[in-house]
Design goal:
The complex is a heterodimer of chains A (about 270) and B (about 160). Chain A is an alpha+beta fold. Chain A has twelve helices and 14 strands. Chain A folds into three domains: about 45 residues, Uridine Diphospho-n-acetylenolpyruvylglucosamine Reductase, domain 2, CATH 3.30.43; about 120 residues, Uridine Diphospho-n-acetylenolpyruvylglucosamine Reductase, domain 3 (2-Layer Sandwich), CATH 3.30.465.10; about 90 residues, Enolase-like, domain 1 (2-Layer Sandwich). In chain A, about 35% of the residues lie in helices and about 25% in strands. In chain A, helix 5 packs antiparallel against helix 8. Chain B is an alpha+beta fold and about 160 residues long. Chain B has two domains: about 70 residues, Ubiquitin-like (UB roll) (Roll); about 70 residues, DNA polymerase, domain 1. Helices cover about 35% and strands about 15% of the residues of chain B. The chains are: A alpha+beta (about 270), B alpha+beta (about 160). Chains A and B meet through strand 1, helix 2 and helix 6 of A and strand 4 and helix 3 of B.
Chain lengths: ~270, ~160
């Protein structure tokens, strides 16, 4: 299986990547690690005419303590995120979740920015970014933007990113509440989550319970009004719109969401 | 486009289509056919090679992405024709293979694991091989082989 024909262009700076993207228009896609995009291209589900390789922009691979928040460069690999001691101390939810993405080979190539910009509803990190109230920093033809993770995802593989706009940094406030948990349910080790949940303090977001990561607002409200983990988790599927597919029916996903949220809230409580 | 990759220490340069995958570059251009194409969907790990020292699935990397970089395949592990790399030796000693199709990928994933974690526990070995499937289900012996290779490495380092 090989992708349809495309023209490969390599950027040696963010400015060059933006120039190439501007001249490529809607036919161009950025290529980071390629571990989500290339499989789709091989199945001809994605057929970009131009691939702009940003994989060598090493100045977008970093983790930095900026005082009130941690800044993670968009091209930081899952493996680097998972092994970062600063993140293990300050944002253990992110470091732990990154270590659960795919398998070691995927984590060597895949990047945090790629995972967010790709916006697969079954991906782990979009829900983590929502639970952590991350801000996504972009650069594009009309300048720089800062977008709340909760506003970033529009639908299946769809975000608010404009053509030619590049996600460059993920800014995550240092959490006030220390408890956290990440749970996902898969049939086999490397599968995408059938359902997953990310918890940081009283903030709860779900993986694969809709076309975008879903904030479990009813659970958050119940927690805020003093409900315990199991009582709050009973609300996990409220407002979610999970799909019915080969991996599970809608009712099964709703059940999994309630079970996993209860587990996650209990684990989070034990860490707070 | 012109792609130049250092494969097992030697430069391999060729004009290839932009959409050429690294695994096809290795098999068809470099003539190194030990790296297998298995599932072709980044699931099975049969095509695992080292790119700048870290394991990757070469069916999901463009040859262009490896341009100017260093690739090691299973053919590049042994120091000579009559030698075996410690990981290869351990797979043979522990019978860590049946049909052998997954073996080049298993061996390369193991080399990458032991470079990152020279003394893995059994649980760590099983997690580290999550991205490599064996359809003969010979996993127990494969895990034993990895643990033996790690032990071998420790003995060698002492």
């Amino acid at each position: 299986m090989i992708p349809a024909q495309f023209s490969y262009q390599r950027a040696s700076s963010v400015d060059e990547a933006l120039e190439l993207a501007a001249s490529g228009g809607e036919d161009a896609k950025f290529l980071a690690g390629g571990h989500s995009l290339l499989p789709l291209m091989k199945m001809r589900l994605a057929v970009p005419e131009i691939l702009i390789d940003i994989g060598r922009l090493s100045d977008l691979s970093y983790v930095r303590d900026d005082g009130s928040h941690i800044a993670v460069g968009a091209l930081t690999s899952h493996d680097d995120v998972a092994r970062c001691t600063l993140l293990a101390d300050e944002l253990p939810l992110l470091a732990h979740a990154a270590a659960q993405v795919g398998d070691p080979q995927v984590r060597h190539r895949g990047t945090i920015g790629g995972s967010l910009a790709h916006a697969d509803p079954a991906a782990d990190l979009p829900a983590v970014a929502v639970a952590l109230d991350a801000t996504l920093v972009t650069r594009g033809p009309s300048g720089s933007r800062e977008i709340a993770a909760g506003d970033f995802f529009l639908g299946l593989f769809e975000t608010v990113l404009e053509p030619g706009e590049l996600l460059t940094e993920i800014r995550i406030p240092k959490p006030e509440a220390s408890g956290w948990s990440f749970q996902k349910f898969t049939k086999r080790a490397i599968d995408w989550a059938i359902v997953g949940v990310a918890v940081q303090g009283g903030s709860v977001a779900l993986v694969n319970m809709g076309q975008t990561p879903v904030r479990a607002s009813a659970v958050e409200r119940a927690l805020a009004s003093g409900a315990g983990p199991r009582e709050a988790a009973a609300h996990a599927a409220e407002g979610a719109d999970p799909s019915d597919d080969l991996n599970g029916s809608r009712a099964y996903r709703e059940h999994l969401a309630r079970v996993l949220v209860a587990r996650a809230l209990e684990e989070s409580l034990s860490r707070s | 486009m012109k792609v130049t990759v250092t494969v097992n220490g030697s430069e391999v340069a060729a004009e290839v289509a932009d959409r050429t995958l690294l695994v096809h570059f290795l098999r068809d251009v470099a003539g190194l056919t030990a790296t297998n194409v298995g599932c072709d969907t980044s699931s099975c790990g049969a095509c695992t090679v080292l790119l700048d020292g870290r394991s990757v699935k070469s069916c999901t990397v463009l040859a262009a992405q490896a341009d100017g970089r260093d690739v090691v395949t299973v053919e590049g592990l042994a120091s000579g024709p009559d030698e075996m790399h410690p990981v290869q030796r351990a797979f043979r000693a522990e019978h860590g293979l049946q049909c052998g199709f997954c073996t080049p990928g298993m061996v390369m994933a193991t080399v990458s694991l032991l470079a990152e974690n020279p003394s893995p526990t059994e649980d760590e070995v099983r997690s580290a091989l999550e991205g490599n499937l064996c359809r003969c289900t010979g996993y127990h012996n494969i895990v034993r082989a990895v643990l033996a290779a790690a032990g071998d490495g420790k003995t060698a380092a002492q």
